[in-house]
Task: structure prediction
Amino acid sequence: MARLMRSLSLLLLSLLPSVALADDELITIQSPHSAAVTVQRLQEAFKADGWTIFATLDQAAQAAEFGIKMPARTTIIVACMPDYTMYLVNRPPMAIDGPLRVLVWEDGERVWVTRNTLRYQLQHVVNRHEAKHLGGAPAQTVEDKLTATIDRALR
Result:
């Protein structure tokens, strides 16, 4: 049953629309590079800027193990550790919603990079865990750093 649910979930992921959707909680920008190069450039930029990469999840490769072919879908999970750790020390359940995730995906014609907005992070993560004043850098500072890292990687 679990394998069937996983296969169904992967199939649904492959049916994502082929254009970026306007959403006030997501930021989606086009990459001028292939998906593989985009992932590599993002990983290199994150490391160079002091981010910790927790994992890189290749959903397309996982789908292939179940006989499902889909375009690139790779999630990079990152955190700015000094700030993220402060939240986890004071609000351990925040680990269920973090760290930050950046998705690299193809729609058959182009490669996109999608992430949550600062608004989403504040409304759905920070507020959920009552974590506004726990120390660490302000959310806007982390957002600015994330934006700069992604922008540099996509040049």
In short: The chain has six helices and five strands. Residues 8-22 have pLDDT under 50 and may be disordered.
